């Protein structure tokens, strides 16, 4: 079995980075402030290792957006997650500092859904470019949960030996640092296909 | 599918279908009603044709994304200022209201050419609801504040009426009413239950009879200053029952004035908090002691060490730490079992506590079989004496340790370090130095004490 080398990972990383840059531009225009995105950190892990890799406390309350993506090479569930407080901080950027989102949960839900949607589309879009194949994306769904519950295989609808492609990005808006986590859940079969195709495309 | 088209036309939501060449191919009734643009005019044109303002907007952008990448987008009214120009018209008043809406955009169709479905969801009533809720939450807060004030006012009035006798009989709160000279005029049943005094034992006597005498005179002085200036006092008393047992009450005293405005009575309402106090103390103690040995735990050590450290910097005093480790404790546990190992740690803890007994000194369980002591205002020789005494005491305790390669009895190694601290060194340095000394003691064959002075960075 051929493995993805650091070179392949770099190619994926760079491709995601370019798309994320575009997403950041969209972002900046929406909040009329400069949004900086860190270079995405990329890793392939099994579900049980995810929390460790991301360095998330099991008791953290996470707010997340979920989308399904489907291409001829793989199907994947994709997640964008924020710690609750940081999710609220992010929404505040859009709604202005005076908005009291604690009193209006609906606003947070919708804003995060859209933000997640933009970023997930950008991330998956870059894979679509890399694979030179269309990836159908479902509409985003907003959910909440404790890290320990979200990151177990059953909830990620993954098998224990499925691979998660974990993309870890930092959003910086002026002084505020907000950490966003993108998880691409690939089942073993999809992972192999994905890998083979990446290897082929990057020959 | 004639039904399908009727369903689409009658949906209470907006539906728009865009072809691959960006032309509108479906514009349902709802869209007609809210936008004022009829389907005849819309079909065959593009969105920017109909609404030039949207040309650079996110809706058009998301349609492109759907066509190019097959991706779905969700656009929320909360973060998108430019959406469809949709309005509700109130025909009675001829008023116009913007329709707040979210938009979902996705690619439909498995084979090319497909189409892009734009789904427009009316959020106006939801937003209204949330705004209402928000305002309600705010007004509820105000209402509560008002209610609270009303209750307070009422309590004041009731106190002035000396409360109704029925309430006094049933309340769990002890109530005692005295005249202006603190002579008891009446008490309620709860008073007797809490204090142990029957009414006839206190009525006509000064309330002072309850006092345990534990609280300083100054405390009562403060009480009277507050009571006379503010009209009320809230605090705790340590009282005494007829049999001498002490109890603690939380008490509110109000001064009551007569028609002329002169103080005529005092009403003291109180309840017993002895048990609560005990529980609190117990909790505090539990959170500060190591469960096995009863010594201070790591948390207390860290706090005490930080406190003493800054104190010693300020006053240029010497501070020493002694790290103690039980020699070959793992072998001990393996040989005698964990239960006996625990017993052994308890014995050692007692020995150490006996040798570190000056008020300011601290002995704590640092973790596992490690103990640590803080010694203050001592000397090299002083530290050596304390550490050696502990080492000898452990040997004298004659705890057998047959598997020990060092000695047939249980022994300890100790490493100590001391310094007159200043800002240039940190408390961690001292701990590290003591740890180094302990390691040295181990290396040299265990069952001994090594002391290393920590040189301040200056020296």
Descriptive overview:
- The complex is a heterodimer of chains A (203) and B (459).
- The mean pLDDT of chain A is 78.
- The longest helix of chain A is centred in the middle third of the chain and has 27 residues.
- With 203 residues, chain A is an alpha+beta fold.
- In chain A, strands 1, 2, 3, 4, 5, 6, 7 and 8 form an 8-stranded antiparallel beta sheet that branches.
- Chain A is globular and about 50 Å long.
- Chain A has 6 helices and 8 strands, in the order αββαββααββαββα.
- Chain A is 43% helix and 28% strand.
- In chain A, a hairpin with a 4-residue loop joins strand 3 and strand 4.
- Chain B has 459 residues and is α+β, with helices and mostly antiparallel strands.
- Chain B folds into 3 domains: 169 residues, PAS domain (Beta-Lactamase, 2-Layer Sandwich), CATH 3.30.450.20; 107 residues, Beta-Lactamase (2-Layer Sandwich); 165 residues, Alpha-Beta Plaits, CATH 3.30.70.270.
- Helices cover 43% and strands 24% of the residues of chain B.
- A 5-stranded antiparallel beta sheet of chain B has the order 2-1-7-6-3. Chain B has a 5-stranded antiparallel beta sheet with strand order 9-8-12-11-10.
- In chain B, strand 4 and strand 5 form a beta hairpin.
- In chain B, helix 13 crosses helix 14 and helix 14 packs across helix 15.
- Chain B starts with a helix and ends in a 6-residue tail after the last strand.
- About 1% of the residues of chain B have low confidence.
């Amino acid at each position: 079995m051929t493995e993805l080398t650091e070179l392949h990972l770099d190619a994926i990383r760079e491709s995601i980075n370019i798309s994320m840059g575009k997403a950041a531009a969209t972002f900046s225009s929406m909040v009329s402030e400069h949004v900086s995105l860190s270079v995405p950190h990329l890793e392939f892990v099994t579900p049980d290792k995810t929390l460790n890799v991301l360095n998330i406390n099991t008791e953290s309350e996470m707010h997340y957006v979920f989308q399904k993506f489907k291409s001829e090479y793989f199907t994947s569930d994709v997640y964008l997650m924020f710690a609750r407080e940081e999710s609220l901080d992010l929404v505040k950027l859009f709604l202005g500092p005076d908005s009291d989102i604690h009193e209006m949960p609906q606003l947070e839900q919708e804003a995060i859904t859209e933000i997640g949607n933009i970023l997930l589309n950008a991330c998956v879009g870059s894979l679509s470019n890399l694979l030179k194949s269309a990836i159908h994306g479902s509409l985003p769904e907003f959910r909440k949960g404790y890290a320990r519950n979200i990151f177990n295989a059953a909830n990620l609808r993954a098998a224990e030996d499925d691979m998660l492609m974990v993309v870890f990005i930092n959003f910086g808006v002026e002084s505020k640092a907000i950490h966003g986590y993108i998880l691409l859940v690939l089942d073993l079969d999809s992972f192999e296909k994905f890998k083979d195709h990446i290897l082929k495309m990057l020959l | 599918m004639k039904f399908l088209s009727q369903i689409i036309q009658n949906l209470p939501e907006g539906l728009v279908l865009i072809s691959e060449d960006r032309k509108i191919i479906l514009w349902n009734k709802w869209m007609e009603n809210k936008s004022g643009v009829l389907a005849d005019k819309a079909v065959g044109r593009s969105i920017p044709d109909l609404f030039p303002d949207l040309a650079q907007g996110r809706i058009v952008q998301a349609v492109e994304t759907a066509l190019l990448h097959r991706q779905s987008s969700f656009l929320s009214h909360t973060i998108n200022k430019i959406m469809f120009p949709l309005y509700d018209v109130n025909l009675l008043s001829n008023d116009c209201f913007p329709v707040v809406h979210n938009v979902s955009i996705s690619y439909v169709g498995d084979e090319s050419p497909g189409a892009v479905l734009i789904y427009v969801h009316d959020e106006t009533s939801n937003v209204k609801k949330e705004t209402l809720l928000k305002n309600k939450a705010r007004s509820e807060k105000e209402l509560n504040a008002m209610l609270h004030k009303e209750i307070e006012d009422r309590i004041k009035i009731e106190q002035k009426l000396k409360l109704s006798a029925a309430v006094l009989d049933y309340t769990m709160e002890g109530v005692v009413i005295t005249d202006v000279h603190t002579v008891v005029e009446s008490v309620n049943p709860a008073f007797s239950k809490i204090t142990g005094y029957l009414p006839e034992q206190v009525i006509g006597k000064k309330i002072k009879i309850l006092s345990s005498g534990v609280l300083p005179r100054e405390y009562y002085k403060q009480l009277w200053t507050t009571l006379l200036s503010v009209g009320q006092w809230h605090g705790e008393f340590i009282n005494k029952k007829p049999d001498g047992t002490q109890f603690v009450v939380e008490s509110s005293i109000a001064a009551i004035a007569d028609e002329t405005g002169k103080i005529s009575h005092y009403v003291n309402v109180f309840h017993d908090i002895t048990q609560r106090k005990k529980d609190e103390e117990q909790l505090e103690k539990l959170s500060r002691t190591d469960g096995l040995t009863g010594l201070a735990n790591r948390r207390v050590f860290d706090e005490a060490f930080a406190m003493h450290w800054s104190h010693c910097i300020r006053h240029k005093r010497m501070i020493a730490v002694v790290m103690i480790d039980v020699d070959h404790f793992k072998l001990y546990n393996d040989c005698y079992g964990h239960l006996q190992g625990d017993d052994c740690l308890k014995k050692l803890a007692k020995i150490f506590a006996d040798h570190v007994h000056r008020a300011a000194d601290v002995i704590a369980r640092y973790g596992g079989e490690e103990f640590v002591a803080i010694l203050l205002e001592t000397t090299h020789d002083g530290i050596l004496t304390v550490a050696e005494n502990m080492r000898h005491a452990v040997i004298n305790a004659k705890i057998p340790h047959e598997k020990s390669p060092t000695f047939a009895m249980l022994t300890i190694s100790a490493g100590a370090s001391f310094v007159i601290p200043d800002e240039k060194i940190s408390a961690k340095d001292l701990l590290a130095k003591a740890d180094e000394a302990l390691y040295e003691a181990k290396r040299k064959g265990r069952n001994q004490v090594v002391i290393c002075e920590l040189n301040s960075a200056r020296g």
